C-alpha cells in the first residue's frame, strides 16, 4: 500500500498550467525526489500536497484517505507534515524553545494552560531529543538569531519532526547551504530513511542522487520520467529536458552513488 497517491492533479494560474495531469505514488519510508528545471512546477506541486494550494482537478489520497479537500492543519494532524520555514521561527528565542513550541502544538490536547509547569517539563525532554537527532543538541540554548544558515535548516527539520510525521515534505532543504552544510544535511536526511516517507524537492543533484529511492522529473508541470536514480540519469528524455540548462548536474559526483 502506498502512503500517498496523487492522480490527475491539475493546477492552473490563468492560462498557465503549472501542474498538468500529474500522477505520483510514494511508498512508506521511501525518499521520493522531485526534480526539474526552474519553473517546472515543483513548489506548486508541494503546495498542493501540503494543502497550501487547492488543485483545480485531481485527487490526493494519504493512507487510503481522500485528503483533496482537507486544509493544511488537518493534513498535518493525519501525519503529513511540511518543513517549517525559518521565517516562521521565533528568532529571539532559543532553538530549544522553538522546538518546544512545535512539540507543544502536538501535545496541545494533553496540556492545558492551567498546568504550564507540568507541560514545560513534559515537552522539554522530547524537544531536546529532537534537537539531538538533527545534530543541534549542543546548540539547544543558543538564540536562533545567532545560529548559522545550515543550523536554521536543521532546526526546521527538528520542528517538522515534532509531529512524528509519516510523510514529510521538504522543499529545497539545501537551499543557500555551503557544500559542507549540504553534505551534513544529506547525512542527516539519510538517518530518517525508512522512518518516515519523504517527498524531496531539491536542486542539489548530489543530495538528490545520494538520497532518493525514486526520482520523478517534472517539466512544464508534467512528469516526464519516474524511476531509480540510475534509470533517471540514463533517461534520454530527462537529459534533453536539462539540455541548455545544466545537463552536467545529472553527472554530478553524487549522481553516481
Ligand atoms: N501564484 C502564481 N501565479 C501565477 N503564476 C505562478 C504562481 N506561482 C507560480 N507560478 C508559475 O507557475 C510555474 C511553476 O512555478 P513553481 O514555482 O511551482 O516552479 P518551480 O519548479 O518550483 O520553480 P523553481 O525551481 O524556480 O523554484 C512557473 O511558470 C511560475 O511562474
Report a brief summary of the structure.
It comes from Chitinasiproducens palmae. GO terms for molecular function: ATP binding; ATP hydrolysis activity. The protein is α/β, with parallel strands linked by helices.
Task: Please write the CATH class name of the largest domain.
Answer: Alpha Beta
Average pLDDT = 88
Query: How much strand?
Result: 15-25%
* Secondary-structure content class: alpha/beta
Strand order of the largest sheet: 6-7-8-3-9-10
**Alpha plus pi helix count:** 9
Domain count: the total is 2
CATH architecture title of the largest domain: 3-Layer(aba) Sandwich
Level of helix content?
25-40%
Summarize the main sheet.
6 strands, mixed
> Which spans have pLDDT < 50 for at least 5 consecutive residues?
none
CATH topology title of the largest domain:
Rossmann fold
Terminal Cα separation, in Å? 28 Å
The shape is globular
CATH superfamily of the largest domain: P-loop containing nucleotide triphosphate hydrolases
Order of helices and strands: EEEHEEHEHHHEHEHEEHH
Strand runs, count = 10
Protein name: Amino acid/amide ABC transporter ATP-binding protein 1, HAAT family
GO molecular function: ATP binding; ATP hydrolysis activity
InterPro entries: AAA+_ATPase, ABC_AA/LPS_Transport, ABC_transporter-like_ATP-bd, BCA_ABC_TP_C, P-loop_NTPase
GO cellular component, one term: plasma membrane
Spell out the key features of this protein.
six-stranded mixed β-sheet; 2 domains; four-stranded antiparallel β-sheet; 257 residues; globular; Rossmann fold
Amino acid at each position: 500500500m502506498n502512503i500517498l497517491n496523487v492522480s490527475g492533479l491539475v493546477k492552473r494560474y490563468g492560462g498557465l498550467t503549472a501542474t498538468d495531469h500529474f500522477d505520483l505514488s510514494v511508498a512508506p519510508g521511501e525518499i521520493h525526489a522531485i526534480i526539474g528545471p526552474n519553473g517546472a512546477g515543483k513548489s506548486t506541486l508541494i503546495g498542493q500536497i501540503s494543502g497550501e494550494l487547492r488543485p483545480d482537478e485531481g485527487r490526493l489520497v494519504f493512507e487510503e484517505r481522500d485528503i483533496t479537500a482537507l486544509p493544511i492543519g488537518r493534513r498535518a494532524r493525519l501525519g503529513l507534515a511540511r518543513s517549517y520555514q525559518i521565517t516562521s521561527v521565533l528568532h529571539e528565542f532559543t532553538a530549544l524553545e522553538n522546538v518546544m513550541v512545535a512539540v507543544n502544538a502536538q501535545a496541545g490536547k494533553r496540556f492545558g494552560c492551567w498546568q504550564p509547569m507540568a507541560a514545560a517539563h513534559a515537552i522539554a525532554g522530547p524537544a531536546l531529543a529532537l534537537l539531538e537527532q538533527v545534530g543541534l543538541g549542543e546548540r539547544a540554548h543558543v538564540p536562533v538569531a545567532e545560529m548559522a544558515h545550515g543550523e536554521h535548516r536543521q532546526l526546521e527539520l527538528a520542528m517538522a519532526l515534532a509531529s512524528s510525521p509519516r510523510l514529510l515534505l521538504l522543499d529545497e532543504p539545501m537551499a543557500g547551504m555551503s557544500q559542507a552544510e549540504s553534505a551534513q544535511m544529506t547525512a542527516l536526511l539519510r538517518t530518517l530513511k525508512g522512518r518516515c516517507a519523504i517527498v524531496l524537492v531539491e536542486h542539489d543533484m548530489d543530495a538528490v542522487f545520494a538520497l532518493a529511492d525514486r526520482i520523478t522529473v517534472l517539466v512544464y508541470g508534467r512528469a516526464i520520467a519516474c524511476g531509480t536514480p540510475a534509470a533517471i540519469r540514463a533517461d534520454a528524455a530527462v537529459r534533453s529536458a536539462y539540455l541548455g540548462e545544466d545537463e552536467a548536474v545529472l553527472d554530478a559526483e553524487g549522481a553516481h552513488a
